[in-house]
């Protein structure tokens, strides 16, 4: 399990959307990006990200992951109360709107899959945009979650609504997100509740489990693991982790901690061509 929204990076065709726009605006404010403000992750944006990462002491790979989002420190809106509150249930995949404490609307939504869950907690809506298009659908409302471009947004694939399939965003039917967008202002409190996914350090001395199966599947797809999917962290799995860490410039200890887990997820997304929010 990785707490990371989609990894922004250079792709063909180029990734685009309001999350890219938010990063570009911040890079322009910091002086790392000159004159590009189009929501398209092109070479100039990639170079600006690399320059920012180098200056911030982050791995300079041109990929906007959790560490880069945190370092960018994109401004947040403070919650000052207000009549509206949103509650999201990631187990039942429901979004509920309250008006002055009274439940007024309930919408089906899609939330994060187990490997990239929707972050639980109390957040606020910090940015709104109409008609972002593509996988973001008709409306986009970014949340104050600091380590990614998480948002409540529409979709170009309504068949996914009601499922746990996203990269951590809350996905709504376009007609529903248009209605919600027209009601709630910036600063609206969004409480996300559901199952808590705990992450353990993975190494040779932990008990077998589905998290190790997922790790083996990812490393197998990336070409590092050649064994069977057993769910047991054996010597072949450790060697695969060490080989991955060595090629990515990480501490080569054979232990899958937060940094290694995020790096594996990023490379796995790249290998699959996954650009969905």
Report on this model:
Helix content is 30%, strand content 19%. It has helices spanning 18-30, 43-56, 66-72, 174-183, 210-221, 235-247, 258-272, and strands spanning 84-89, 94-99, 102-112, 121-130, 139-143, 151-153, 164-166, 170-172, 189-193. Helix 5 packs across helix 7. The chain is built from 7 helices and 9 strands; from the N terminus they run αααββββββββαβααα. The model has no long low-confidence stretch (mean pLDDT 92). The protein has 3 domains: 18-72, PGBD-like superfamily/PGBD (Muramoyl-pentapeptide Carboxypeptidase, domain 1), CATH 1.10.101; 84-193, L,D-transpeptidase catalytic domain-like, CATH 2.40.440; 210-272, PGBD-like superfamily/PGBD (Muramoyl-pentapeptide Carboxypeptidase, domain 1), CATH 1.10.101. The radius of gyration is 19 Å and the shape is globular. It is an alpha/beta fold and 277 residues long. Strands 1-2-3-8-6-5-4-9 form an 8-stranded mixed beta barrel.
């Amino acid at each position: 399990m990785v707490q990371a929204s989609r990894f922004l990076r250079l792709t063909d065709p180029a990734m685009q959307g309001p999350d890219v726009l938010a990063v570009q605006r911040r890079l322009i404010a910091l002086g790392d990006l000159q004159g590009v403000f189009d929501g398209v992750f092109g070479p100039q944006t990639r170079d600006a990200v690399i320059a920012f990462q180098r200056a911030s002491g982050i791995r300079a790979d041109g990929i906007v992951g959790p560490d880069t989002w945190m370092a960018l420190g994109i401004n947040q809106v403070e919650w000052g109360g207000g009549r509206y509150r949103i509650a999201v249930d990631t187990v039942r995949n429901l979004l509920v709107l309250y008006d002055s404490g009274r439940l007024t609307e309930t919408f089906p939504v899609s939330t994060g899959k187990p490997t990239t869950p929707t972050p639980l907690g109390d957040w606020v809506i910090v940015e709104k945009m109409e008609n972002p298009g593509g996988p973001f659908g008709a409306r986009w409302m970014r949340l104050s979650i600091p380590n990614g471009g998480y948002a409540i947004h529409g979709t170009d694939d309504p068949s996914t609504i009601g499922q746990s399939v996203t990269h951590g965003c809350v996905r709504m039917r376009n007609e529903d997100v248009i209605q919600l967008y027209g009601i709630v202002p910036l600063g609206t409190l969004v409480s996300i509740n559901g199952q808590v996914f705990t992450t353990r350090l993975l190494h040779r001395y932990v008990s077998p489990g589905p998290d190790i199966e997922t790790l083996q599947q990812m490393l197998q797809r990336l070409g590092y693991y050649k064994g069977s999917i057993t769910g047991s962290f054996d010597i072949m799995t450790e060697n695969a982790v060490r080989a991955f860490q060595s090629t990515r410039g990480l501490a080569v200890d054979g232990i899958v901690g937060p940094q290694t887990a995020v790096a594996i997820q990023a490379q796995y997304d790249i290998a699959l061509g996954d650009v969905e929010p």
